[in-house]
Amino acid sequence: MTDLKDIAVAEATAQSGTPKMTARNVSVFYGDKMAIDDVSIDISQENVTAFIGPSGCGKSTFLRCLNRMNDTIPSARVTGDISLDGEDIYDSGMDVVQLRARVGMVFQKPNPFPKSIYENVAYGPRIHGLAASKAELDTIVERSLKRAGLWDEVKDRLVESGTALSGGQQQRLCIARAIAVDPEVILMDEPCSALDPIATAKIEELIHELRGRYAIVIVTHHMQQAARVSQRTAFFHLGSLVEYGETTEIFTNPKATRTKDYITGRYG
Ligand code: ADP
Ligand code: MG
Q1: For residue 53, what are the contacts with CB-CB under 8 A and spacing of at least 6?
Q2: CA dihedral 233, 193, 257, 16 (to 10 degrees)
């Protein structure tokens, strides 16, 4: 087992360029139960990073470490170090509300506020004081909806409820909401699992368009999706990071037996 861990750590730290986020020796416990076991990984700015692995292996738990969403789960305890642009995000001086704007999150099930389409996007910029006037706020809302590929579909109905949109539109609205506060990183936890194939394809296209502007991490249990949207893939199993590297390498030439077994469908 040690050899596999060595491979993972070596890969984790072998990326070119300065990483946007780094995790070192991160473990997560729910009460006494360990859900993440000593994970080290670099997240790059310019690539889309996919987290794959069977259900229950800790993908969501680890993703939530990256913007301290586990803080909201009373039994969860995180150890190790995580930094954003070299800054320790678990430092006692870190403003967690600010952190979650810088490291935004999109969830499995689209969760728009029960408010208008406009308000869904305007809410964040308003509470973060990003707009000095109504006109500026309008500009941010329009730009965010455009970047999320939703503007043309909603520009004439901004006052309608966000919850009245289709599932795929709601998910793009949630992406627009994350974009509106000018994030640096966007975390997506199985963002297409509640969507039909056409809505899924739109989200995947959008991920391509957003690549480079934001560091993107996507959790997916759908291996073809990981292969389509990401340049780096991390394979998790039973709370460990088994292997991390170029997506094409992971899918065509995995080093670890457990990765090979997973991508060839030996377990789900
Ligand atoms: P994945 O996203 O890969 O399916 P999770 O991160 O959701 O995996 O879960 C990893 C492990 O942690 C599982 O054993 C799961 O049951 C456990 N777990 C997840 N969330 C909680 C929680 N809030 N409280 C207790 N255990 C949890
Ligand atoms: Mg999950």
Answers
A1: 59, 221, 235, 236, 237, 242, 262
A2: 0
What is the pLDDT at residue 9? 56
Please give the pLDDT value at position 4: 57
Structure-token match 């939530």, residue found: 64
Which CATH class for the 4-112+182-263 domain? alpha beta
Structure tokens at 24: 């070192």
| CA 187 / ligand 1 centre spacing (Å) | 17
Amino acid letter at 191? P
Q: Which residues line ligand 1 (CB under 6 A)?
A: 30, 35, 53, 55-61, 73, 75
Alpha carbon nearest to ligand 1 atom 21, residue: 30
The ranges of the chain with pLDDT < 50 are 1-2
Domain boundaries, the chain: 4-112+182-263
CA atoms within 13 A on the CB side of 5: 11
